[in-house]
Amino acid sequence: MSSSDSSDYEEMDAEPVDAIPCVFCTEASSNDHELISHCAAKHGVQLNSVFARMKDVFDVIKAINYLRKEKPSPEEFSLLSSAQSPPWSDDKYLEPSIPNDPLLRVDFERSQDHNHDEDSMNDVAFLREQLDIAHQRIVQMQKTARVILDGRQGQPGDVKISRAVGDLKVSEDSGYIDSYSQIEIHETMLQDKRRTESYRDAIVTNTPMVKNRVCLDVGCGTGILSMFLARDGGASKVTGVDFSEIIYHAMDIVRENKLENIVHLVKGRLEDLELEPADVIISEWMGYFLIYESMLDTVIAARDKYLKPNGVMLPNRANMYLTLTDDMELYKQHVAFWDDVYGFKMSCLREPAIADGVVRQLAPESICGSTATIKTFNLYTVTVADTMSFRSPFELKSERDTTVTGLVGFFDACFDLPRKVVLSTDPRGEPTHWKQTTFLLPDPIKVSANDKICGTICVERSPRDRRGLEICIELDGRPPLKYHL
C-alpha cells in the first residue's frame, strides 16, 4: 500500500478497537494481533501478509467485506487471494457487511511490522514453502532423467524426448490452461445437452455406485459434474480439480447452490497435488477425435494415484471409429476451392489445406459407408504409452454408388454400469460440440455399392505439440496421406 494510504489507515487505527470476530469462524479476538495469531494457527491463513500484499487500502476493505459476506473457507480464500482478478474486486464490496466492523479499523501494515512472533512464523512458513518447491523440482528432474535414460536408442546421445503431458512445464502449457479460463468454452460444453445429460444420466440411474462415496472430478471446470455427484448421486464428498481460472467462478457456483459442504474445489495441476483416495473418478476428458488435447494423460495419472481398489471410472471405456463421406460441398470448400480463387490458381495451398483435419458436424445423409473400430481404450488399464501412438487396419464398405471425398473420425464414451449410458459423436446421431473430424482426400474415389476401401491409420502424438496429433492414412494402392490436429 502507498505511504499516504498507510498514514490514513494509522489514523483510523488510533481509535479503540472492539472485540474482532474471526472471518472464518465464530470466535472473537480482543485485538488485531490476537486475531492474526488465531487465523494463522487455527485456519492456516496469514491475514497480515495477505492484506499487506494488496495494492491499496480499498482492496483490503473490499477483501474484508467479501470475507464477511461470502464466507469462503480458509482454503478458498488463500486460492482467491492469488488470483489476478479476485472476486472482491467488485466495488460493491466497499460497503461494510457488518456495521462498524472493528476489523476495518486495523492497520495490517503496522500489525505486520509490530508483531515479531507472527513474522517469525511467516519466515518459517516461507522457508518451508521454498523447501517444498525445491523438493518438487528435484522430483521433476528425476522424472526427466528417467525419461531421457529410458528413451535411449542405440547410440549414446540418441535420446527419445517425452511426449507426456505430465512432463510439461506450466509455462509450456499456459495456452491450453488459459483457453479453459474463458467463459465461452464452458458455455459451449454446458449447452451440449447430449454431453451433459449423458454424464447426469450415468449418475442418476446408477446412484448406488456414487451414494456415500468419495469422488474426484478431474478438470472440473464450472463444477457441473461435481454438483451432479453431490446433488443427484448422493456422494459424501466430491473434490473437483482444475488448473484454469474458471475454478474461482466454480467456487461461487458451488456456494450459490449450497453444496460447499460436499463439493470441495482445488486449483492446481493434478499431477502436482496430494489428494485423498477416491471411490469414483469422473472426468469429461475427451477432445476432437477423442484424444486431441491429451487430457487422458491426466485422468490416467489420477487413476494410478488416487483410485481405490475396486473403484469406478466414469466413463470407463472409449472407442474410436472411421467411416466414409461423400460430402462434395465440404470437398469443394476446402480442396477444390484452391484451383480457382477469383480467377487465380492457388493449387500450392491444396496440400496444406488437406493436411488440416476438418472438425465439422456432418449431415447424416453424407455418410456413405460402414463403420470400423480403430481403437478401444479401457480406462481401468490404459497407459499413457497406449495413447502416444497406435496403428490400426480398417475395411470400409460403400453403402451406395457415389464418390467418396473423405474418411470421417468419431468416437463414443461408455459408462458400463448396471444401467449403461453411451455418449456418442456418431454423425448419424444427436449432434455434440465435438462434431466429427473429416480427413479429406486429395482425389475423390468413385465407388459402387458394397465396394471396399481398405487401409491402415496411424495416430501419434505430435512431436511439436504434446496436445496435438499427427495422423497418417495409407489406403491400399495409394500414397500415404498425412494430417494433423
From TrEMBL:
Cellular compartments annotated: Cytoplasm, Cytosol
Domain Protein arginine N-methyltransferase as annotated: residue spans: 316-475
GO biological process, one term: methylation
Top-level taxon in the UniProt lineage: Eukaryota
EC number: 2.1.1.319
Domain Protein arginine N-methyltransferase 3-like C2H2 zinc finger as annotated: residue spans: 56-96
Keyword Thylakoid: no
Any one GO CC term of the record: nucleus
Residue ranges annotated for the Methyltransferase domain, each copy included: 216-311
Single annotated GO MF: histone methyltransferase activity
Reaction(s) catalysed (UniProt annotation): L-arginyl-[protein] + 2 S-adenosyl-L-methionine = N(omega),N(omega)-dimethyl-L-arginyl-[protein] + 2 S-adenosyl-L-homocysteine + 2 H(+); L-arginyl-[protein] + S-adenosyl-L-methionine = N(omega)-methyl-L-arginyl-[protein] + S-adenosyl-L-homocysteine + H(+)
Main enzyme class: transferase
Keywords assigned by UniProt, alphabetized: Cytoplasm, Metal-binding, Methyltransferase, S-adenosyl-L-methionine, Transferase, Zinc, Zinc-finger
Chief location of this protein within or outside the cell: cytoplasm
Stored PANTHER family: PROTEIN ARGININE N-METHYLTRANSFERASE (PTHR11006), PROTEIN ARGININE N-METHYLTRANSFERASE 3 (PTHR11006:SF53)
Protein name: type I protein arginine methyltransferase
Species, as recorded: Galendromus occidentalis
Lineage: Eukaryota, Metazoa, Ecdysozoa, Arthropoda, Chelicerata
